[in-house]
């Protein structure tokens, strides 16, 4: 199919022609975030790095939804949810609770972790393997419960 950046550019054109305002705006913001990251690194991003940018943008939308809901601004929360739904096409499917628990157990066994002082090694193992498909806070809570913290 080509690179993920090419796919985003093509889908931006399609959204423009189809009059899909939310999709168009979200894809343009994603493209800008990718470009900013490229300028920062002074090189083109590969597909994995583009996916990381999409994950960050999606996470921003999730945080904004929570903030707007707490502030009672359902209209703005709905807009952020719609943008997050568009970004979902570019974000890898998250791990289930069972998959996350299995990965944490594997990490504890592989690193020989026995105490809370080993948490950093376990977290590094899990986050490296999960590559953005799991929330760090969720993993941290699981690791704490397994290591008795």
Keywords:
mainly alpha; Hypothetical Protein Yqey, Chain: A, domain1; Arc Repressor Mutant, subunit A; 2 domains
Description:
The structure is a single chain. This protein is mainly alpha-helical and 149 residues long. The chain has 2 domains: 87 residues, Hypothetical Protein Yqey, Chain: A, domain1 (Orthogonal Bundle); 51 residues, Arc Repressor Mutant, subunit A, CATH 1.10.10. It is 76% helix and 0% strand. It is built from 7 helices and no strands. Helix 2 crosses helix 4, helix 3 packs antiparallel against helix 4 and helix 6 crosses helix 7. The longest helix has 24 residues. The termini are far apart.
Helix content: over 70%
Look at the structure and give the mean pLDDT: 92
Count of all domains: 2
CATH homologous superfamily of the largest domain? Answer: Uncharacterised protein YqeY/AIM41, N-terminal domain
- Write down the Rg: 18 Å
CATH architecture of the largest domain: Orthogonal Bundle
Q: What are the SSEs and their pairings?
A:
Layout (H helix, E strand, L loop, with lengths): L3 H15 L2 H21 L5 H24 L3 H14 L9 H15 L7 H12 L5 H12 L2
Helix pairs in contact: 1-2, 2-3, 2-4, 3-4, 5-6, 5-7, 6-7
Summarize the structure.
This protein is an all-alpha fold and 149 residues long. Helices cover 76% and strands 0% of the residues.
């Amino acid at each position: 199919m080509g690179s993920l950046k090419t796919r985003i550019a093509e889908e931006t054109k399609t959204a423009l022609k189809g009059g899909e305002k939310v999709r168009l705006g979200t894809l343009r913001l994603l493209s800008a975030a990718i470009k900013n990251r490229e300028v920062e690194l002074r090189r083109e991003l590969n597909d994995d790095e583009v996916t990381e940018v999409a994950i960050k943008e999606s996470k921003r939308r999730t945080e904004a939804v929570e903030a707007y809901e707490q502030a009672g601004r359902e209209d703005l929360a709905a807009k952020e949810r719609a943008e997050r739904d568009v970004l979902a096409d570019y974000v890898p499917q998250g791990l289930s609770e069972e998959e996350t628990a299995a990965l944490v157990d594997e990490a504890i066994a592989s690193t020989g972790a026995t105490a809370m002082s080993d948490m950093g090694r376990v977290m590094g193992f899990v986050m490296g393997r999960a590559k953005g498909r799991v929330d760090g806070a969720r993993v941290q809570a699981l690791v704490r419960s397994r290591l008795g913290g």
